[in-house]
């Protein structure tokens, strides 16, 4: 006799079968009930292929009046939590498909994870990238072991070419979706956080269009302890998840094309399963400004020596912005899920963050061409103890 908990019933209700678009990979046929047992099975299967990342007490705790624990998923080999879902997805492929290979398009954390783990599993892997992709990202994918093909000037061109090659050669075309396999792999983060931090009050995740991490981890956490608050954070500029929850279906706002700084956070809402799980299990979704994300990047770099991107910093940004006052005095875990910030962007983010944090003052002035004026300016700066 199987005893079904209330949370399992809730998960079952949250995931009716949703017809999927034919443009998705064949794995969309696996969109079924995501159970706690599925997440546990994923954790067992991927334990030797991904890092069990630390969830450490942060020195930022005193500054924000709560016990903050940072789940450092940016320490995965490719710098992203997406490895968990990708590895479980790839290891679940039939052997004949593993021999034929897989193909992905776009410059994203998902593609990087596929490139690395498919190579490690000796699955032929092809990555189609547009000619506008940075050479550093192309080089990295090749070093992971993928065959990288530059095609087209836009992401849409790359995707179209990838689908064509998949059809002609028998490759499986993969793009990030919310199949039960992928969500179960991502949900292992929730299992680990629960195990690593006793007496948790809340866990904060990045949200946005690709909310699979939020949905899958919420399924795990709510099964283990329904009283833990699960909170998603997205950008005010791209409130994709809040719009989708309000509409009751994934939105297709054309303004939400992937923004270079925000990455996956600004993408379109990609799945009904993730959306329904989020609506059922997530307690709150908040939005933060770009300025809050930049200061969050600065705080993590300075206090934790952690170099993260916008997706990685957005969870902490909700605390920086004071969006969650109810968590004061509580024990809170924040998932830092991605650290793939390109060097030129890192330089800009740090410079702007210091200005926003009132630690660097930028100004311009016009001086007359008279002897002694520069000396007077330097004297004024010295009186203000400027450095």
TrEMBL record:
SUPFAM superfamilies: Tryptophan synthase beta subunit-like PLP-dependent enzymes. Residues 49-337 form the Tryptophan synthase beta chain-like PALP domain. Keywords: Lyase, Pyridoxal phosphate. Its cofactor is pyridoxal 5'-phosphate. GO terms for molecular function: L-serine ammonia-lyase activity; threonine deaminase activity. The keyword Transferase does not apply. This is L-serine deaminase. One of its GO terms (biological process) is L-serine catabolic process.
């Amino acid at each position: 006799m199987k005893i079904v908990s209330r949370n399992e019933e809730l998960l079952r209700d949250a995931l009716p079968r949703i017809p999927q678009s034919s443009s998705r990979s064949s794995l969309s046929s696996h969109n079924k009930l995501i159970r706690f047992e599925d997440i546990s099975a994923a954790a067992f299967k991927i334990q030797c292929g991904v890092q069990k990342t630390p969830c450490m007490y942060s020195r930022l705790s005193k500054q924000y009046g709560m016990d903050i624990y940072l789940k450092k998923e940016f320490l995965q080999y490719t710098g992203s939590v997406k490895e968990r879902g990708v590895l479980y997805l790839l290891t679940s492929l039939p052997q004949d498909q593993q021999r034929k290979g897989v193909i992905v398009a776009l410059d994203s954390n998902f593609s990087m994870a596929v490139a690395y783990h498919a190579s490690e599993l000796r699955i032929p892997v092809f990555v189609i990238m547009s000619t506008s992709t940075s050479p550093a990202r192309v080089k990295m994918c090749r070093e992971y072991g993928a065959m990288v093909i530059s095609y087209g000037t836009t992401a849409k061109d790359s995707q179209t070419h990838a689908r064509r090659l998949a059809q002609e050669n028998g490759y499986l075309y993969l793009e990030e979706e919310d199949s039960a396999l992928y969500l179960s792999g991502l949900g292992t983060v929730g299992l680990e956080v629960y195990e690593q931090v006793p007496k948790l009050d809340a866990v904060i995740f990045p949200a946005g269009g690709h909310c699979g991490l939020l949905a899958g981890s919420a399924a795990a956490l709510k099964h283990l302890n329904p009283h833990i608050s699960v909170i998603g954070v997205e950008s005010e500029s791209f409130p994709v998840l809040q719009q989708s929850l309000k509409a009751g279906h994934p939105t297709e706002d054309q303004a939400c094309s992937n923004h270079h700084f925000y990455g996956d956070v600004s993408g379109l809402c990609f799945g009904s399963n993730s959306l329904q799980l989020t609506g059922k299990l997530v307690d709150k979704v908040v939005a933060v400004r770009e300025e809050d994300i930049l200061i969050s990047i600065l705080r993590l770099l300075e206090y934790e020596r952690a170099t993260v991107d916008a997706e990685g910093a957005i969870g902490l940004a909700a605390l920086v912005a004071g969006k969650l006052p109810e968590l004061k005095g509580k024990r809170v875990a924040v998932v830092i899920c991605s650290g793939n910030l390109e060097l030129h962007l890192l330089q800009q983010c740090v410079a702007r963050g210091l200005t926003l944090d009132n630690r660097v003052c930028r100004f311009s002035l016009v001086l007359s061409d008279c002897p002694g004026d520069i000396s007077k300016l330097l004297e004024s700066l010295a009186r203000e103890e400027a450095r």
